Amino acid sequence: MILVLILLLLFVGYSIVEYAIHRRHLGRIPVRVQVNGTRGKSSVTRLIAAGLRAAGRRVVAKTTGTSPRFITGDNEESPVRRLGKANIFEQVRLVRRAVALGADALVFENMSLDPQYQEIEARMLLRPTHHVITNVRPDHLDVMGPTVRDVALAFARGVPRRGVLFTTQRDYLHVLSPRGGRGLETVVSDESRVGADQVTGFDHVEHAENVALALDVCERLGVNRDAALVGMQRSRPDPGAMRIYDVTVSGKRLAIVNTLAANDPDSIARLWRMVSPRAAHRVVLVNCRADRTDRSKQLADLVAGFEAAEYVATGGLTRVFLSRARQRGVATTRLHDLGEDRPPSEVFERLGLLAEVETLVFATGNTVGYGDRLMAHFAEKAA
Question: What predicted TM-score, i.e. pTM, was given to this entire model?
Answer without folding.
Answer: 0.81
